Amino acid sequence: MLEGRRMVGFRPSSRDGVLPLKFEVDGVAKNVTILASYSVKEADNYERAARSSFGLMHIPRSDIEEDLDRGILGEC
Length: 76
Known about the structure:
Elements: E1 8-10, E2 21-25, E3 28-32, E4 38-40, H1 43-51, H2 61-70
Parallel strand pairs: 1-4
Antiparallel strand pairs: 2-3
């Protein structure tokens, strides 16, 4: 599903490297470390990078609901 797509990684100052993606598949928790083509250290820049077409981001839907409704961001 993500093959050939660029990812924006979130790299907080409190840790080395990009945070893994956390999600569930059939009720089983998964943590996947991505190979990010672009990474940021601040949450505002994380969203800004996705809005500027730098790549996909993994974020709670509630944080970007308005952008989804207005068609600024899309889901995949």
